[in-house]
Amino acid sequence: MIKKLLFLLVLLLTATTGAWAQEQWDVVWDFTAWSTETVTALKADAAASKLEGWSDVEKKTDAEAGADPDAAAKDNCFWFAGTVNEDGSLSANGAVIKELKGLKFNSDYAAKRSLAIAVNYPSTSLGEYAGGAYLLLGGGGSKQPFPCFTIPGVKAGSKITVELESHKPSDGRGIGLYKNSYAAENLIGEQFKPKTLEAKTWEIAEDCDVVVWNTSNCHIYTIKVKAPAAPAGYTVSLKDGVKDADKWSVKVGEGEAQAFPVEGLEGGEKITVTYSGEKKVKSVKAVKKAAVTYPLLSAATAEDVGKVVCAAGHLHDAKTAVPDGCTAVGILGKVTETGHGLILAMQNATEQTWTTINGWTSVTTYAGTTLKVLPDAARGTNLTSYTTLGATAVSNWAVAQKSDYEAIFTNLGSTKNSDGMTYDNNVNAYITTGVGGTAISGNYWSATELDGDDAWDFSSR
Known about the structure:
Layout: E1 4-7, E2 10-13, E3 27-30, H1 36-48, E4 54-55, H2 60-64, E5 77-80, E6 91-92, E7 95-96, E8 104-105, H3 107-110, E9 115-118, E10 123-124, E11 127-128, E12 134-137, E13 149-154, E14 159-166, E15 175-179, E16 198-203, E17 208-214, E18 218-226, E19 234-236, E20 248-252, E21 262-265, E22 271-275, E23 308-310, E24 315-316, E25 328-335, E26 341-345, E27 352-353, H4 354-358, E28 362-363, E29 371-373, E30 388-389, E31 392-393, E32 398-399, H5 402-411, E33 422-423, H6 425-432, E34 443-449, E35 455-460
Parallel strand pairs: 1-34, 33-35
Antiparallel strand pairs: 1-27, 2-26, 3-18, 4-5, 5-9, 6-7, 8-13, 9-12, 10-11, 12-18, 13-17, 14-16, 14-18, 15-17, 19-21, 20-22, 23-24, 23-25, 25-26, 28-29, 29-32, 30-31, 34-35
């Protein structure tokens, strides 16, 4: 019998290989988890035409002959056969592809039918790949005098990190980064041509557009850009408890007097403080205080399980209200040895049947298990969509496997019964105390299939 039950959700955190990312990224392009909207649009293009838009038929000659896509590629890998938009973006079924926004694609390269989006294409006759979802750069080499795409407006001192692998695992293939235009003298550092999935970081010496050119067929999984650090700013504020606080004003340099606090000062400014009340002022003292800082999600370890994660990418004490200005997102429930983590939602999503859940897009590159990512409509009004928490890249909400929930509940103090799928008020204390989440109650789905028509669920005991 197909049951219609509430289900629990997790966020899947991306990280560098081996540990949680130690750097915060200002811009991230993640090609490992294409949204439901994008996949639907790609399929619509492929169904409409083999010769325009995105097609799951790889070769132009096959498309012109009306050939059907091979079984592995059908609805799983889509080659670009359309026209680049004026701003360099790419569209599918009339809508700009959000995962590619900010990149400017070269129209000559795009016209070669060499660019592809893989949503579930983990192997070919050439070998097995690290994942099934990526951006495929075909063509390349000395006969290709134009780049694939450009990362515009990169500032001096920025770092660009790319995770990629060769399309042919026995042969090193990859990319080069170039300053402003593709020419040998503009090469930044060295070309990057791994056989299997690896990451490389380039440091950009001067302001420029960074041009990406490929040596041959390769897969890009992520592109991450870290901007140079901005100078530290200062805030001038009154100490808590100062009497007649509304009678004090502050002037910066020759500017107008204004109320406290004043933020965004660079240092070295002349500060004039004025009191307009009727009390006598005995003295005024300026005290330099260190800025309040919080541990970062990107540096989380297993010791941080149970802490509250906020939208700014900070970790806050468990069972405690987050500070003013922060928005609680969920509870850190699991940190893996491979450098990823799962965050437990504090609210339920809309009810679904297992048949519906089983049809959602699978993600395999985060928690070491296969998870089902929620389409936008399934989150309901209780769950906000996230692709970043602060500067830390995350996937969107998903339904986790039985083993994932078992690990989360155990980490949060629950004990297992014979089926390993129970939770109790130990878990609910983390969700509700201080942060005001909704206690989990009743039965919930997992993404672990039971018998073809049903999935393992879990409930309170």
